[in-house]
Amino acid sequence: MTTQLQHQMRYRDRDMIPRFLVIGMFTLMGLALAIVSFAQLSGAAHVGVLQEAPVVESRSVTIEPSGMNNYVLLENGEVIAASTDEKGGFYAVIGKVIDRRRIVHQVAGNPPIDVVRRENGNIAVLDPSTSFTIELIGYGKDNIAAFARLLD
């Protein structure tokens, strides 16, 4: 003899996710796959992909750790900016990224990086020792301005 609760749960397990939602989910997945496949096979131009513009201005600096979580930017041995400066904390973020990248690529020493302004106005940080480029877009105006000040 089954109780009313057991009888109710037997049918409820089948109806936890309505069938039309499962069909809709797989239909949406199939459509997305079809659209991406068509775009790739037809050779459609990539939209929203950053196009690197030519460099119009450049400055070579060395970024060095200075104490706990602080970084300084040097040019010819002279400090030109530091992460402890007002609105300069982003230097430490980029410094840590570059340090990590250099460890992974086993770069010896501390070669300089290039801070560049591109023809389209974008600011970028280039590390020639690892062929690494950080395009400073989407990081916030204060963070981008910190590196733009190095070029002004």
UniProtKB/TrEMBL annotation:
Protein's name in the database: Photosynthetic complex assembly protein
Annotated keywords: Membrane, Transmembrane, Transmembrane helix
Spans traversing the lipid bilayer: 20-41
Organism: Histidinibacterium lentulum
